[in-house]
Amino acid sequence: MTDRAAPKLPDYGLGAAGLGNLYTAISDEEAVRTLAAARDAQFDYLDTAPYYGHGLSEQRVGKFLASTGYRPAISTKVGRCLDPAGSSPIPDNGFASPAPFIPRFDYSAQGIREAFAGSQARLGVDSVDVLLLHDIGEVVHGDAHSAMLAQAISEALPEMAALKAEGKTRWIGLGVNEIRVCEEILAQVELDVLLIAGRYTLLEHEAALPFLDACHARGVKIIIGGAFNSGLLAASAGEPLRYDYDTAPGWAVDRAAQLREVCASFDVPLPAAALQFCKAHPAVASVIPGAKSAEQVRQISEWTRHHIDSGLWDALKERRLISGDAPVS
Description:
- Helices cover 40% and strands 15% of the residues.
- The chain is an alpha/beta fold.
- It has one domain: NADP-dependent oxidoreductase domain (TIM Barrel), CATH 3.20.20.
- Strand 2, helix 2 and strand 3 form a beta-alpha-beta unit.
- The longest helix is centred in the middle third of the chain and has 21 residues.
């Protein structure tokens, strides 16, 4: 892939799972305000997926694009198709009041085409900048992982490459929460980009650091999702403490408290350090924190611009709260 073909991603974009009512519902009006705030903050990259609110996130993004003419970089995902729920109960999958569809994994070539066509319709676009294969991996699929991986390699990724050749996307890759499956696929398939959520963060990055270094050497770009570890590193007093979309375990809560203490001694908000730490790695093309209100977007924008003295990173390394080999801003 030539540089001319690469999408122009800003340092920070908006992860749009919250626009699909992740954990709690927001109104259509609040979704519009959130997207407008992202535009005003020059977070000109939106990452969404059919899974987010069972199509609701893509619908809201598409309506905003149509009504404003705004044209940010866009990534969406394939690997799940949405079936009308009809009279069947709608699983929430962590989304409050999702659209009346039931997500179904489908890594077949036909399923990739079907999923992408649905995204095109909801987003109101003919093409996207980045197309990602969603949630492949052993943690998600358990005993079915080997079969799913084989189909992803033999059908899904070749079909995504065909879509790229047709001009329907400029980058193809994976959108996952697991490093291991990235290694398995990169051993067999050339990819442009990996969206990795929650594995390279200020809270935990030691295991992922060698992998990001290898990706940088290979020219595979990284998009960082989950920089706050499901909100743990940005939670205010009284808010639920989550990690990997569930209640945060004790070790994570304790480590976050230690990080917060050191950051406070340098007058740096922990979320600012979390975001800027992720962006500092040379493999990282963009960091996409999630937000579901205009206020949250404006706060995130302030965190991305907060000055951080190099002494903070030195102190965190001395306390062994970040790896001594980790790149820092």
